[in-house]
Amino acid sequence: MAGFSSSLGAAAGDAELARLLAAEQQKAQLQLKVHGFTELCWDKCVEKPSSRFDSRTEACLQSCVERFVDTTLAVTGRFAQMVQKGGH
Amino acid sequence: MDDFSGGPIGGKVDSGMIMEQVKLQIAVANAQELLQRMTDKCFRKCVGKPGSSLDNSEQKCIAMCMDRYMDAWNTVSRTYNSRLQRERAQM
Question: Which coarse location class applies to the principal site listed for this UniProt protein (chain A) (predicted)?
Answer without folding.
Answer: mitochondrion
